[in-house]
Design a protein that fits this description.
Elements: E1 3-4, H1 8-17, H2 21-38, E2 59-63, E3 73-77, H3 86-106, E4 118-122, E5 131-133, E6 138-140, H4 155-169, H5 177-199, E7 209-210, E8 225-226, E9 235-236, E10 240-241, H6 257-260, H7 266-279, H8 287-296, H9 306-321, H10 326-337
Parallel strand pairs: 2-4, 4-6
Antiparallel strand pairs: 1-5, 2-3, 5-6, 7-8, 9-10
């Protein structure tokens, strides 16, 4: 499964409307590479190894040296000193932060739960405007410097992409339609939680933005997505306007982007934000635990829709906190607040 952080609708807009012909050409190349990589995406379940409790990270950073070949040359291994290459050292640090988060919050040992080696390749392609998880490792472009900065910068980009790996090894949600939008949303949820945990922010203190700092100076926008207010992250002549809905009334029916996986993910994203802020405190402790248990519990169909996932989160909340608990009520209200119907018994 290959999942990219920058959605195709943004790249298509750049390819059509960017002022600079070089930016248009670069966007077309990024789209072509993404399309080529996507042909390998269709859901192949990763064999889930036996969980282990030996929590020792195993990180390797590789350098593609601006070529479109993976994995590249090893430039830093676990425990080695900093390289002096900002991108390589950021990638190393953010792998560590993600590993530490899943250990501390959920006693999960790396991406697969069994100490999987964490590999990242930096400097992929020529000013490549994306980052992705390819089913085995992280890959980062440097960005064009005009619309996007380096993709190693924001921690939540690394967290988002590695969370695709967690999904791959657990629920293995199909990357199409509503299950695909849930796949994207779960990655946004844990990308945001990793950032919040790293910054020691409560749900009320967090910005709930995905990719804050990625948009270059002069771009009219704050991030790729807003979990708090889907549809408000950017509105720029070259990038277009953020198309994410935050309610089922505005669900987008489309065949593009695997059925709108990067667009309609705004709906479950806002549901999580509503639940987390209603519960309060550190979002990874209760709301995050409910979502994590739902994802990893082994009960989700790979093609689950929003209503099925919502019901599963309500069952997780009930199991963890009780049917009448404030946490369970917050989860139910969050989903109804975005127009996803809940079963009568939650």
């Amino acid at each position: 499964m290959r999942c990219h952080i920058v959605p195709p609708h943004m790249l298509e807009r750049i390819a059509h409307d960017a002022d600079d012909p070089a930016l248009r050409d670069r966007a077309r190349r990024t789209l072509a590479l993404s399309s080529l990589q996507a042909t390998e995406r269709r859901t192949t379940a990763a064999a889930a190894p036996s969980p282990t409790e030996d929590f020792v990270p195993n990180r390797t950073i590789k350098d593609a040296e601006n070529r479109e070949e993976l994995p590249g040359r090893t430039v830093r291994a676990e425990g080695a000193p900093a390289t002096g290459d900002k991108g390589a050292d950021q990638a190393y640090d953010w792998l560590g932060a993600t590993f530490d988060f899943f250990e501390a919050a959920y006693r999960r040992n790396s991406i697969d739960g069994a100490g999987l080696q964490m590999v990242s390749t930096v400097h992929y392609g020529d000013k490549y405007d994306n980052a992705f998880w390819n089913g085995e490792q992280m890959v980062y472009g440097d960005g064009d410097g005009v619309l996007f900065t380096a993709f190693t910068g924001p921690l939540d980009i690394t967290g988002h992409e590695l969370a695709h790996g967690v999904t791959q090894y657990t629920a293995n949600l199909e990357y199409y339609g509503q299950s695909g939008a849930l796949n994207e949303s779960v990655s946004d949820v844990f990308g945001s939680l990793i950032k919040q945990w790293h910054l020691k922010q409560t749900a009320d203190q967090a910005d709930w933005l995905i990719g804050q700092g990625l948009l270059a100076e002069g771009v009219n926008g704050v991030a790729l997505r807003s979990m708090k207010e889907p549809g408000t992250a950017y509105d720029d002549p070259q990038l277009g306007k953020d198309p994410q809905p935050g309610h089922m009334d505005h669900y987008v029916e489309t065949y593009r982007d695997n059925g709108g996986v990067h667009i309609n993910s705004g709906i479950p994203n806002r549901a999580f934000h509503l639940a987390a802020t209603a519960i309060g405190g550190n979002a990874w402790e209760k709301a995050g635990r409910i979502w994590y248990d739902t994802l990893t519990g082994g009960t989700l169909a790979t093609d689950v829709d929003f209503a099925g996932f919502a019901a599963a989160t309500a069952r997780s909340a009930t199991r963890l906190y009780g049917a009448g608990a404030a946490e369970t009520k917050a989860v139910n209200r969050a989903w109804t607040g975005v127009g996803v119907p809940m079963e009568a018994n939650g």
